[in-house]
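Section 3.1: Structural characterization of target chains.
Under the original work plan, the team committed to producing a structural model for every single-chain target entering the pipeline before any wet-lab resources were allocated. The record below documents one such target. The sequence was received from the expression subgroup and is listed exactly as submitted; it comprises 214 residues.
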Amino acid sequence: MRVVKEAEERINEILDAADELFFQKGFDGTSTNDILDKVGIARGTLYHHFKSKEDIMDALIERYKVRLLDAAQEVAENKSIPVVERMIHVMMSLKISGGSSAEMMEHIHKPQNALMHQKIQRVIVSGITPILAEMIREGVQQGVFDTPFPYECMEMIMIYANTVFDDDYVGMTSEELAARMHALVFNVERMLGVKSGGLMHIMKIFDNKTTDNS
């Protein structure tokens, strides 16, 4: 007897299988036949839900996006924490340590997942920037920051941080990395109208990264 499953359940099965295969073999190394065999479905069933392998990847990235942004938004909304500390926690939430989220980030840093990597980076910049910008506006009202361009400042910061501090884009020694981190914080202070040295404690976001590269 043929098993008929609800669309959402079938879609999740396909995405779960693709997630595992992309982790094991990379996006480039995984074929639609691999996914079909893993789920145990006919090609027509797969194409009923997804037009292509890249369409499956986009749906997976959407799941990743929800996971990332939900965690960041939850931190951002905790008004019991001072705004600068909350911003640090939001940035640290992107490091995603432990569990399936850690595996997710390991996924996208493989060379065969370069397209996934590029798309996730775009998700981070477009999704996290508005969250941080709203916190900058809050900080402006409190007198913590002084800038007429909250969104634009955070967009520039996110784009820089997600390229220069990404090992896949720029390879650096620990000394070069530390210098760029200090330069970023130095310039962020000026962009946001914070007194010199006022944000240097943000460096703790990068402590593990510096240690890993030393």
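The chain has a mean pLDDT of 83.
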